[in-house]
Amino acid sequence: MATIGFVGLGNMGLPMALNLVKAGHDVVGHDLSDKQLATLSEAGGRRASGLDDIATCEVIVSMLPAGKHVAQIYGGEEGLIKKVKTGTLLIDSSTIDVATARTIAGEAAGAGLDMVDAPVSGGVGGAQAGTLTFMVGGPEAAFEKAKPFLEVMGAKIVHAGDAGTGQAAKICNNMLLAISMIGVSEAFSLARKLGLSDQKFFDIASTSSGQCWSMTSYCPVPGPVPASPANRDYAPGFATDMMLKDLRLAKDAAQSVKAKTDLGDQSLALYAALSEDGYGGLDFSGVFKRINGDI
Ligand code: NAD
């Protein structure tokens, strides 16, 4: 069993850290929130006295909001890369921009440390159940070292390639998810207005060529898929503001490599408008309500 420093005990990080505790690891947590640290301690983890305490751990996992937080924790003179001992494994599971992920990975490699970017799919439910999908970027040796720890928190661990490719996979997937959710929403709205019931259109399209995850697992209208957020007035799930964050990352990445992502850009504009109008907390499938003219 390892001593694991866990930085960022938020909605995702806390349940992930608790799964590491349950697996018998000695988990030392660091967060700005006292409440989150208290919950970790009550569950058998420990509270770090600060980043210096985290730096003494054999493995460090981070689950932070954005690239600037990751750069601050790992990089610079006061960052973990300068403080940890040789052989420490660094796993950043935050969803951040590819450029920052590659810069930090480069600094870690320069210091002789194993590091992977390992963003996740599966949301808070997946974090609690230990069924997350990890998309991992980094050298093969670092991936193999990280895998046993990721397996405690996830059900599917995929090595995407070199440093930054985990983040690349994550934002490309989520850009596609936004586009497909908008497409499914437009189709259901049009079908309704043409006189089809939601259930009838679902029965037909879900076994036809328009079938996709946004329809069959996360249907944006109430009824056909009982577990989807549409059945609880679009309570998240995966909030509009979270989707917006990932679409912004995708747009920045697309611009940096001159990739053409017209539908990604349009999706970004639609989710940005929803957020500006005060619907940032609505599940991202709530875009159906905007498309249907309900909000
Ligand atoms: P969150 O805001 O709930 O948690 C972030 C935590 O980081 C907070 O507890 C905050 O106090 C802590 N933090 C911020 N700056 C810190 C610092 N300098 N030092 C220590 N702690 C610090 O966010 P979340 O929903 O847990 O998401 C975390 C990451 O996971 C994000 O990058 C997000 O995009 C990604 N993600 C989230 C979901 C989801 O459904 N929530 C799904 C997939 C990926």
Offer a few descriptive terms:
single chain; 295 residues; alpha/beta; Rossmann fold; N-(1-d-carboxylethyl)-l-norvaline Dehydrogenase, domain 2; 2 domains; six-stranded parallel beta sheet; three-stranded mixed beta sheet; 14 helices; binds nicotinamide-adenine-dinucleotide
How would you summarize the topology of this molecule?
Layout: E1 3-7, H1 13-22, E2 26-30, H2 34-42, E3 46-47, H3 51-54, E4 59-62, H4 67-74, H5 80-83, E5 89-92, H6 98-110, E6 114-117, E7 120-121, H7 123-129, E8 132-137, H8 140-153, E9 154-161, H9 165-193, H10 198-205, H11 213-216, H12 240-256, H13 262-279, H14 287-291
This protein binds nicotinamide-adenine-dinucleotide (NAD).
Nicotinamide-adenine-dinucleotide binds at residues 7-13, 30-33, 36, 63-65, 69, 72-73, 94-95, 120, 123-124, 238, 242, 245.
Note down, in words, how this protein is organized:
With 295 residues, the chain is α/β, with parallel strands linked by helices. The chain has two domains: 3-161, Rossmann fold (3-Layer(aba) Sandwich), CATH 3.40.50.720; 168-291, N-(1-d-carboxylethyl)-l-norvaline Dehydrogenase, domain 2 (Orthogonal Bundle), CATH 1.10.1040. It contains 14 helices and nine strands. Strands 3-2-1-4-5-6 form a six-stranded parallel sheet, sandwiched between helices. It has a three-stranded mixed sheet with strand order 7-8-9. Helix 1 links the parallel strand 1 (3-7) and strand 2 (26-30). It is elongated and about 65 Å long. The model has no long low-confidence stretch (mean pLDDT 97). InterPro entries: 3-OH-isobutyrate_DH-rel_CS (IPR002204), 6-PGluconate_DH-like_C_sf (IPR008927), 6PGD_dom2 (IPR013328), 6PGDH_NADP-bd (IPR006115), HIBADH (IPR011548), HIBADH-like_NADP-bd (IPR029154), HIBADH-related (IPR015815), NAD(P)-bd_dom_sf (IPR036291). It comes from Iodidimonas gelatinilytica. One of its GO terms (molecular function) is 3-hydroxyisobutyrate dehydrogenase activity.
